[in-house]
């Protein structure tokens, strides 16, 4: 399977896709700056602590990169959440829930797009430490790193949030489907589906 997926890599990263990523990334700089300023003012009252959450994630070719998000959770002890643990929703405050529902917390990731480390659409990158565990435990997990990771992807719109071993298997299968059938038309369809998910399911 990995060899078949690899043959479609150039389709997944075509010139139209790159132009789409850069254009949308530049356009989103304005709302990104506006939300950042608002959070600098609101966080001291509603969510004390840093505005940004930085995390090392596994990107293309299993290489690490740093992803940025607006912080939505209270700080946890280092290494407190295991690779197969569920999301610690008790650490999400009211302001954080709003950012997640609207997906505004994802806006800082346009910086990694403009650096060429992420795309708008692609397999969602996991934290580097967790991804190292998945590489050992999940067959086919490495194959999803043959393309640039994305802010949203086929697994996010069609499978949704997953946790636990079974959930990771379903996510990997969806990522394989995306890479195998990669095209700019599919990226546009996933973009539309992402907007629909945000509007109808209130984000996550």
Provide keyphrases for this structure:
204 residues, two-stranded parallel sheet, 51% helix, two-stranded antiparallel sheet, mainly alpha
Explain the overall architecture.
By secondary structure, this protein is mainly α. 51% of the residues lie in helices and 10% in strands. It has 10 helices and 4 strands. The protein has helices spanning 2-6, 9-12, 15-27, 29-46, 94-102, 110-114, 128-137, 154-158, 164-180, 184-201; strands at 52-58, 64-70, 119-121, 150-152. The chain has a two-stranded antiparallel ribbon. Strands 3-4 form a two-stranded parallel sheet. The protein starts with a helix and ends with a helix.
- Please give the order of strands in the largest beta sheet: 1-2
Number of strands: 4
Largest sheet: 2 strands, antiparallel
Q: Hey, roughly how much beta strand do the residues contain?
A: 5-15%
Q: Give the number of helices.
A: 10
Concise account of the structure shown:
With 204 residues, the chain is mainly alpha-helical.
Give the helices and strands, then pairings.
Layout: H1 2-6, H2 9-12, H3 15-27, H4 29-46, E1 52-58, E2 64-70, H5 94-102, H6 110-114, E3 119-121, H7 128-137, E4 150-152, H8 154-158, H9 164-180, H10 184-201
Parallel strand pairs: 3-4
Antiparallel strand pairs: 1-2
